Amino acid sequence: MKKIAILSASVRNGRNSHRVALYFKNYLQTHQLAEVNLIDLHEYNFPIFEERLRFISDPSEAMLRFASQITEAEGIIIVTPEYNGGYPASLKNVIDLLYAEWKRKPLAIATVSAGAFAGSQVITSLQFSLWKIGALVVPAMFPVPTIDKTFNEHGEPADKEGTDKRANAFVGELIYWMDAKAKVD
After folding, report:
1. Which residue numbers delimit the NADPH-dependent FMN reductase-like domain (predicted)?
2. Is residue 93 within 8 Å of 48, Cβ to Cβ?
3. Is 81 within 8 Å of 17 (Cβ atoms)?
4. Domain range spanning residue 138?
5. Number of compact structural domains in the chain
6. Beta bridge partners of 157
7. 99-109: buried (b, 16+ CB within 10 Å) or exposed (e) per residue?
């Protein structure tokens, strides 16, 4: 079975984007599409890193566990809120911590906002950072507007049928690129 990690990027108290991470965990498991590993940055409480992992003389167990989870995943869904037109520092922090672990890793991006624009402003800057380190950002996106109306705190969508239809296309694109990468490795 394929291995997909879901990276929940927000570390704020009262965060709402985590609802979408919970949705994808349930969606992937219910449809038996992949082994799922939910990586919740809120649980790590990482400091601001001063160097890439490979240059840190005494990395913490948490850093090594995080790196291992990214390495082991065949594909990753990044769920990120949009904060003031960008993505959270917690996400930039872990992107910059690693390098080889992201290289040629198929990634799909789900953006979340409280407003109507669904995190659309965060896409360009996040894609650019991921492209610069060689990640394979798939062309499908999963934008979520007005999160407080579209998903409850348990990750259940208000419009299950419509959300599942969008998720099917989004996850299908990620799996396509995971399969394509596996053929060339």
Report:
1. 3-144
2. yes
3. yes
4. 3-184
5. 1
6. 151
7. eebbeebbbbb
User: pLDDT class for 97, splitting at 50, 70, 90?
Assistant: very high
Which one, of 70, 48, 86, 87, lies nearest residue 135 by Cα?
70
pLDDT over 80 (residue 117)? no
Q: What percentage of the chain carries pLDDT values higher than 70?
A: 100
Q: Which two tokens stand for residue 183?
A: 């053929």
CATH code (residue 39) = 3.40.50.360
Number of alpha carbons in the 13 Å side-chain half-sphere of residue 27: 26
What's this model's pTM, rounded to 2 decimal places? 0.95
Report in angstroms the alpha-carbon separations of 164 from 118, 136, 158, 183. Answer: 17, 24, 11, 28
Round to whole Å and give the CA distance between 14 and 11. Answer: 9
pLDDT band at 120 (very low <50, low <70, confident <90, very high): confident
Q: Quick check: 7 pLDDT over 90? A: yes
**Residue whose C-alpha is closest to residue 4's, from 184, 181, 165:** 181
Residue that is written with structure tokens 């999160």 in the block = 147
Per-residue model confidence (pLDDT) at position 107: 97
Round to whole Å and give the CA distance between 15 and 137.
25
- Cβ atoms of residues 130 and 95 within 8 Å: yes
The residue among 170 and 122 whose pLDDT is bigger is 170
